[in-house]
């Protein structure tokens, strides 16, 4: 009688442990799915951005250009563990009334650990799971540029980008170095759940320091300031 009772108790405990394990796995899957929503990847998805770029070559008189960039997922290829690598066609145009001109092809893969975007022939880890405030990872782990720690700054916050309002945005700080004598290297990207990349900012500038009169004056000698802002997105 005691043996039967012990068996029943053991069976009951095992059933509870199994249920908890399944629930845990299910919840983990839900979290992973939500994190993947910050970079949705499907054939036909497109994003159109307004680009403003100022390039400095020999002094503070920079040359500014404005144009539009379209990123469209045109194909997908099977990858490991049931995931897919998505082909992204980049096209540009000088204004909204001009035709798109193909410029280059990138690719993207979002697996159970990370989102990898290959820009030309260079791969970057754009997001690393699980996403959380202050989460840090090496964005250059798959390229030869050397370690560069990316960090989640803004996390799951409302944000306005250009003329668009969003309720759930994260900021990836790729680099944030400012020096009033030498220059700045500031790069960040903002992703929105269900939308993807909505903003990218790059400021890599070198200040004049070749004579005493300009040191510390923040006079730009060379570099680039570039801002990419989402203006339209959807699925064809």
TrEMBL record:
Signal in keyword set: yes
PROSITE patterns referenced in this protein's UniProt entry, alphabetically: PROKAR_LIPOPROTEIN
Domain of life, source organism: Bacteria
Signal peptide from the UniProt entry: 1-24
Keywords: Signal
Stated name of the protein: Uncharacterized protein
